[in-house]
Structure formats: C-alpha cells, structure tokens
C-alpha cells in the first residue's frame, strides 16, 4: 500500500486509528478484546422486568462504554505520536484536523457514476501524501 516491503509496529498501530484521527481504520485484533464484555454489559439491563428502568440503565452503560473507548483511543494516539519523528507527527496532525477533507476521501464509496473510483496508483499516492511518505522513485 505504501510501497514498503514491511511496516513497523508503530506504523501498523497508526493505520489502525480511525480516519478522523489520521489513520486508515484497519483495526488490530487487540482493539476488540473488550467487545464481548461490553456486549454483555449492554444487554444485562434488559434482563430486568421493568423495561423503563432497563432502558435507562442501558443508555447509561452505553455512555460509559463510549467514554472508555474515547479515552483508550486518545491514549493509543498519544502513544503512537510519542514514537514518531517530528515530521511524521505533523503529517498525522494535519491528516486528523477537524473540518479538513484530508480524510473524507477514505470513507467515500467508490461509485463509478460519480467518478469516485481511484486507480491503485492514485490510492497509493493519496496514502503517501497523507503521511508525507515519499520515495526517491516517486517524488510528488
């Protein structure tokens, strides 16, 4: 994808970040280690006989889980950024800027009728430009 033969664990972790955070949203299996427990926590309040109370409890649990997920994501991003060079940090920060369209193209459906499809080389160039990964063979 980036014309490298191998990627570092830190680059792989960067790819696992959501696109809005500067990543590619290619999840790591370890990102989902808590999913089963969270599903149990969400469905547990529904076992109550009082439906109204169960719904309120479920909404509270969902809010708590979202808070935990956001906290874990922030910690993960800070850990990744701390292991990057200054130019790479800047590239990730620019790719994750709010309001920037720098990540929206990664979430677009490749519809031919709207001319949203990319060739392999266009996609590779977009990824390399996203993180300022240029090779001597393919300068921008």
Order of helices and strands: HHHHH
Number of strands: 0
Distance between the termini: 16 Å
Question: Helix proportion of residues, in percent?
Answer: 40-55%
Structural class: mainly alpha
Poorly predicted segments:
none
Q: Characterize the main sheet.
A: none
What's the helix count? Answer: 5
Can you give a write-up of this model?
- It is a single chain.
- By secondary structure, the chain is mainly α.
- Helices cover 50% and strands 0% of the residues.
- It contains five helices and no strands.
- The protein has helices at 9-16, 35-43, 51-82, 86-95, 120-130.
Please describe the structure with a list of short key phrases separated by commas or semicolons.
elongated; 0% strand; 140 residues; mainly alpha; single chain; 5 helices
Helix and strand topology:
Blueprint: H1 9-16, H2 35-43, H3 51-82, H4 86-95, H5 120-130
Helix pairs in contact: 2-3
Short description:
This protein is an all-alpha fold. 50% of the residues lie in helices and 0% in strands.
């Amino acid at each position: 994808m980036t014309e490298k033969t191998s990627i570092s664990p830190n680059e792989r972790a960067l790819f696992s970040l959501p696109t809005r955070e500067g990543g590619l949203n290619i999840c790591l299996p370890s990102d989902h280690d808590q999913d089963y427990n969270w599903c149990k926590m969400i469905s547990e309040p529904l076992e109550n006989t009082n439906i109204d109370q169960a719904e309120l409890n479920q909404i509270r649990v969902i809010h708590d889980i979202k808070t935990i997920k956001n906290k874990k994501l922030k910690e993960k991003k800070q850990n990744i950024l701390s292991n990057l060079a200054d130019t790479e940090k800047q590239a990730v920060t620019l790719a994750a800027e709010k309001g920037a369209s720098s990540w929206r193209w990664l979430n677009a459906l490749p519809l031919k009728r709207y001319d949203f499809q990319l060739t392999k080389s266009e996609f590779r160039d977009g990824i390399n430009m996203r993180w300022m990964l240029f090779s001597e063979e393919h300068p921008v």
